[in-house]
Write a structure and sequence with these properties.
This protein is mainly α. Helix content is 69%, strand content 0%.
């Protein structure tokens, strides 16, 4: 999803010179640090340097801002995954790179904004749940496609992708509880048997172009 589409539902009444992109980055940080319910409108407005009336003119509501912030966060993360897959030497390394990005073992105890928001508000928040399902589906599809390049049949690749995502999301949740990075890496390494080795032909081609 493009940056424009992530902002498409926001109101157009913005103060002159107001940087919506910068405001979204601030909102991401505030929601990420404090959560949705614990974040007051006053805290958001103050962080962005907006009056209450300007906040409503720019974003419509706190929930609309959350949706735009989570969408931007998810889009940025997905773009990073796509880049890492493209830059990897082989499909197995690509899957490992995806897991490393999602787990972010050195990311501290804030956890993952996407997971935090879903855990706090879904399934009662239908809009957020739909966003979560769409993002999870595209990440799963990218991983499934990458696993198929390792010789997995379509059904097997989808099942392995689901298991890998479940494992790495668990690691992400544990990171929020303060589990040390070294332990998170050890847990993440349990994914190794789920990632097939490249077919011999691929290995041979890399060694003998």
């Amino acid at each position: 999803m493009s940056k424009k589409s992530a902002l498409a539902k926001l109101p157009l009444g913005r103060p002159r010179g107001f940087d919506v992109e910068a405001a979204l980055r601030i909102a991401i940080d505030v929601f990420w640090q404090q959560g949705y319910e614990a974040t007051s409108l006053e805290a958001l407005s103050h962080a962005m340097g907006l009056s209450r009336s300007s906040f409503y003119a720019c974003f419509g509501s706190k929930h609309a801002l959350l949706m735009a912030a989570v969408q931007r966060y998810a889009d940025d993360r997905y773009a990073t995954l796509v880049e890492r897959v493209a830059a990897s030497a082989d499909p197995r390394q690509a899957v490992q790179a995806m897991l490393a990005v999602i787990a972010d073992v050195d990311g501290g105890t804030r956890g993952c904004l996407f997971v935090n928001a879903v855990s706090e508000l879904a399934p009662g928040d239908a809009a957020l749940l739909a966003l979560a399902q769409a993002h999870t589906a595209r990440v799963g599809a990218l991983m499934t496609t990458t696993l198929r390049r390792l010789g997995c049949a379509e059904g097997e690749a989808s099942e392995r992708a689901g298991a890998l995502l479940a494992l790495v999301m668990g690691v992400t949740t544990l990171r929020k509880t303060g589990v040390p990075p070294s332990q998170l890496v050890a847990l993440l390494n349990q994914a190794d048997p789920l990632i097939p080795r490249p077919p011999l032909s691929q290995s041979t081609n890399r060694k003998h172009p």
